[in-house]
Amino acid sequence: MNDFTVPPARIRNIAELARLAGVSAGTVSRALANSQLVNKDTRDKIQALARQHGFRPNQMAKRLRVRETKVIGVVVPLGHERRQHLSDPFFMAILGHLADALTENGYDIMLSRVIPDAEDWLERIADSGMLDGVLLIGQSNQFNAIERVAAWYKPMVVWGSHRAGQTHCTVGVDNRLGGRLAGDCLIGAGRQRLAFLGDTTAPELSERYLGLCDAASAAGLAAPITLNTHLASDIMAEEIAGHIERIGAEVDGIAAASDLIAMHAVRALADRGIIVPEQISVTGFDDLPLAEQTIPRLTTISQNIADGARTMVRALFERIAGTDAPSVEMAPVLVRRDTA
Hints:
By secondary structure, the chain is of the alpha/beta class. It has twelve helices and twelve strands.
């Protein structure tokens, strides 16, 4: 004869546990919630039976009943740059800080990378009933869609640029000032023929280019040329390599739209024997952890990503609680290293 103990049958729901305990489903529900409305002996009996039969209440169902899911949607809209991936170092950096702040406050995360093919893509997310709030990483080219949803859906905060009179709540740096700081840095290093590497169809990147133009205009220099470069890493290096010949002939200072673009530019210049910063100065934008690990170390504009992520979460919690938290525009900071 085999010597083993058959485990008790697993209970699947409150009704089954109620039948086993000989009480109502409501009594079971209150006992599992440790309610003082159920006497101690009955509570202890029901909780012991639940442990014995491996029963755990469905927390999501409970949350939905009280209209609380304890889940925050973190959404990356990619309308202007469809080939960009979540593995992009900027996304990984801000996602890490958002996840820390949310989970430390007892919330789970539902992460979505969205290609906005349908006009109502954001309405479907906000109205899903699965989320307590939404954090958008970037506005992409979806400003109008975000404005439309923000008019009726309050628990939403967006990483991005702020425009006067906009409805949706944003957290981000003053991108135009950041571009101006990059331009002043390059001009202070003696550079007079400036170029912007980036995609100016994205609102945040367009502001960075305009700031670079502000610096050039104030110094009496010609407007910086634009060298279109996508943020998608699979084509970025090829595009930058294609710009190098023109850069070598026409440019002595590069303001890149992101740290990753700047790093690829420094590598492409080195492959052509062009020395940074002796022959060409380069600035990035973001101040990712990688920026101080490259050789040479990258001079860049800090977006205060960690502070910004914490500010986004605080503003979202205020909005969930019913307070219309305002937009926050942080000051960018020039971080001088070796490339400019």
